[in-house]
Amino acid sequence: MTAEPGRDTGADGQDAHRVAAEALDAVRAAADAAQLEAVRALYLGRGDGRLTVFRRGLGKLADADARRALGQTVNTLTERVSDAIDERRAELEVAARAQQDATEALDLTWPPRPLRRGRLNPVTLAAREIRRIFGQIGYIAVAGPEVEYDRYNFTLVNQPPGHPARDAHDTFYVDDSRLLRTHTSPVQIRSMLVRGAPQRVIVPGKAYRRDYDASHLPMFHQVEGLCIDEGIAVSDLKGTLEFFVRSFFAADARVRWRPHNFPFTEPSLELELACVSCDGSGCTLCKHSGWLELLGCGMVHPAVLRNGGIDPERYSGFAFGMGIERAAMLAYDISDMRLLYENDVRFLRPVS
Ligand code: PHE
């Protein structure tokens, strides 16, 4: 079949028009991007697209004008279909977005989720406060190892082999010579050996004992205090710790001193605090005694000074040891020590 040159593209041209019309219908009918892509492949696919194949027939046309005319027709139709596809795609995108807006109802004015800030555990708060208070009167904070030699934990603080406090019942032993320190007192010896005299240190840190109930944990915190100088007396011990108690608890907090016994101090005392709940009149917190045990202390035993390389003829000192959990519980009114380690944010929130 030959085309009439310059006027018509002949039967092939008409076929191409028909196919293009079909393609345009299919484009309008495409309901989504996938269908639209299928239509493009069907009509404009490289090689065998229904419209594309008309180019193949071009070579068979002997007449150059007819060839050019059919070529132009196929080009024009291809462009028209291609434009229609682009338009339809834009239309479908708008419709899809409108649909999404309607169903997902994104409300940009909705308030964001609240940011939850981390809070410090009361033990950390108390330790910081203790450090601050002793810092005001010239104490520096130092640390020592938690896995400690038996020698430092016991022997050098006057608890020789056979002493009841060494009982495996209370102590976590690592091996024959090492253990998890049962108190911060071994750091007294370490600090004496390192710093000599005079010195004023506090040692906040972890200690371990085989205990677990509402007022005892297997891991807990203590703060050790050590003051060594010439002429240090029990009055210095009392003045220092009363200053601490008034700074940490309340300006009008009352204390009383009771005799006690520790192997590493002589004399030994215990500081009791007028009950923070009933102020001395008696309640369940103080077991109706009106007083709460807060810390153990005393004048450093001469043998301990000597073990630390300090001459007890020239120097004297006092030391104390306080449970930080206990201090935090009394200051922040916490009834069960285990609460401090359960990591319940509802508990942590009101305290800090
Ligand atoms: N180390 C003692 C204890 O854990 C406390 C203490 C320290 C007592 C220093 C006196 C002097 O119970």
Widest β-sheet, arrangement of strands: 1-4-5-9-8-7-6
Known CATH architecture of the largest domain: 2-Layer Sandwich
Structural domains: how many:
2
Question: Shape from CA axes?
Answer: rod-shaped
Q: From N to C, what is the helix and strand string?
A: HHHHHEEHEHEEHEEEHEHH
**Percentage of residues in DSSP E strands:** 15-25%
> Based on helices, strands and strand pairing, what is the structural class?
alpha+beta
- N-to-C terminal Cα separation, in Å? 94 Å
Low-confidence stretches: 1-8
Count up the helices. 11
Which small molecules are bound? phenylalanine
Number of strands: 9
Rg on CA atoms, Å:
44 Å
**CATH class of the largest domain, anyone?**
Alpha Beta
Average per-residue pLDDT, rounded, comes to 91
